[in-house]
Amino acid sequence: xxxxxxxxxxxxxxxxxxxxxxxxxxxxxxxxxxxxxxxxxxxxxxxxxxxxxxxxxxxxxxxxxxxxxxxxxxxxxxxxxxxxxxxxxxxxxxxxxxxxxxxxxxxxxxxxxxxxxxxxxxxxxxxxxxxxxxxxxxxxxxxxxxxxxxxxxxxxxxxxxxxxxxxxxxxxx
Length: 173
Prior knowledge:
Layout: H1 2-6, H2 10-17, H3 20-44, H4 53-70, H5 72-82, H6 89-111, H7 119-142, H8 150-166
């Protein structure tokens, strides 16, 4: 099917890629780059550098959630790709590299952190956002009507920060 769709013989695919699986891995790796590029464009779109951190948080997550609808196949493919990381060291390495870049990029976007000045802090903050992303994405892909919006996430963060700042303890059950 791949050979027919591309107009190349199966032998040609074997010659250039070694196997059908190697071709699929090359396509997956290319897709990772395109996915992260699309995410970067989505997150950077109309970012207001004068907005407060909470305003940036809400606006950025609103754009991310909107991208779930417009880029649904890309987001679905990212989950499918995760199922392949144990089968392909090349795909795993590409995903790991993309995650490293994403951590620092997310920290810079949300907090205007200069990774060169405080890479450890930027890594930690970016890791938080990177952990949040697939959870929100999964909720939206499964049940968009009940998934959190950018506003919902901002309200949750305000509540968490207020609880942490006040020193209140959550009652243990």
